[in-house]
Write a structure and sequence with these properties.
The structure is a homodimer.
Chain A: H1 3-13, H2 19-23, H3 33-37, E1 40-44, E2 49-51, E3 59-65, E4 68-73, E5 79-85, E6 88-90, E7 103-106, E8 110-116, H4 117-126, H5 128-152, H6 157-168, E9 173-175, H7 180-187, H8 191-203, E10 207-210, E11 213-216
Antiparallel strand pairs in A: 1-8, 2-7, 3-6, 3-8, 4-5, 4-7, 9-11, 10-11
Helix pairs in contact in A: 4-5, 5-6, 7-8
The first copy, chain A, binds a DNA duplex through residues 155-157, 179-181, 189-193, 195-197, 199.
DNA sequence: CGTACTTTTGAATCGCATCAAATCTGGTGG
DNA sequence: CCACCAGATTTGATGCGATTCAAAAGTACG
């Protein structure tokens, strides 16, 4: 397994689709050599299963591209999506569990990194710097998710867009790294609603749209 | 300052309003004595400010009761709520920042614990057990928040309720620890919509409501 | 026993999802 | 280079469902 090479390659070329790792001050770069050596790369096809509820936790997964869904089934066959993940660590919470509490299924062809859990924990114990990065990563993830929940609680397309620009953008200016359709999904809107609301807000002079760059013009008065 | 006493008192009597701390295997109990000794208790009135954007990070706060909002202002006076917090740690992400990036204002009368940041970091460095608890707490928080985001992305009151019961309940059975009105807010619904949808689902035989306990009956067929 | 809050039901409105269809875009291969 | 295709973007029309406003009944608490 060309694991160590692969990981370095990913870090050095930055040819990953996942932004979070890079954004978070290049977390992958802080992975200690010992852990790197045993980290594996894996591709799974759409529909394939990554792990199953009840099976024991052996790996911590980091999603590089594609989509994985964490799904829970109930007795009568109901199916609940607990999480759709398009990047980042999957089921970090399973770190302190013996077995997985849900299934993980690939929704598309997916590339991931597999960290053997015991080695990962060992690295956290033994490497203060790595540990600090890991805690910072988790803490930042918590902040981002809380902000996203807050945004999804807004009952209005315009408010969600403005909230996004205010919270994710730099001073109200944001350059999309994704398609607007994908953005709509992140905002919990249909893509049509997003297009229309963007147009409306632009028509009201509330924001300016130049290709993938969107700027908030004046947010003082809330008149959606 | 009767800090150490207070903290023990809180832990021993469990008379806090915040469930998460207790739920998360009694995190407070794992706080090392050194940190306990310098932990302060604070009450702030509704409208009072806890910290201000740009001010340096001196404390890590843990909300015991009340509500604190993290708010960001833009140049033109726009006001965006990044987070409404009704319990748990506030702005953990500020752990790795020199200054706060938003304001924190109490929305109600609020009780909190104030951990001096340097002591907290010191405790994390020096106490492996405490550190493990902290990482587990963060990881579990991430999982909960991701699940909540997933739920808030559902465009349908019935689906959100079922999702909540499936993901937060034990085998589809859940006893509410809060009012239904508060639950509605957590679900991102108006309380009227929650009451009505509960009634509808009960009428369809999809769930059973006995006071504060709600059970999912059959979730195999999605007919909301 | 009064006050504040939750729970409940009703009615009206409006925004968003949904379905449909046309145009535009980037990327692929002939 | 062009034809082609899949996907994104855009606009239109329609209907449902949730919000909102309103008001009454129930409940907790001092």
């Amino acid at each position: 397994m060309p694991t160590c090479y692969d990981l370095n390659h990913i870090v050095n070329t930055k040819r990953m689709d996942w932004h979070t790792l890079i954004e978070s001050q290049g977390f992958l770069e802080f992975i200690p050599g010992d852990l790197r050596k045993v980290t594996e790369r894996r591709n799974i096809a759409a529909g394939e299963m990554l792990f199953r509820a009840g099976s024991s936790v052996c790996y911590l997964y980091c999603l590089l591209s594609g989509e994985v869904r964490l799904v829970r089934h109930d007795a009568s066959g109901g199916r609940i999506v607990l999480q759709r993940s398009r990047g980042g660590f999957i089921a970090e919470a399973s770190i302190d569990s013996k077995t997985y509490h849900c299934d993980a299924v690939a929704a598309e062809n997916t590339r991931l990194l597999c960290f053997p859990l015991s080695e990962f924990l060992h690295a956290l114990e033994g490497n203060a710097h790595f540990r600090t990065m890991w805690m910072a990563l988790l803490a930042r993830e918590v902040r981002k998710l809380r902000t996203r929940c807050e945004r999804l609680s807004l009952h209005n397309a315009g408010e969600r867009i403005v909230h996004y620009l205010e919270s994710e953008g730099a001073d109200g200016v944001l350059t999309l790294s994704q398609s607007r359709k994908a953005w709509a999904e992140e905002l919990g809107l249909s893509h049509e609603a997003l297009y229309r609301t963007l147009k409306k807000l632009a028509g009201q002079g509330r924001l300016k749209i130049e290709g993938k760059t969107i700027s908030l013009l004046r947010s003082s008065d809330y008149q959606y």
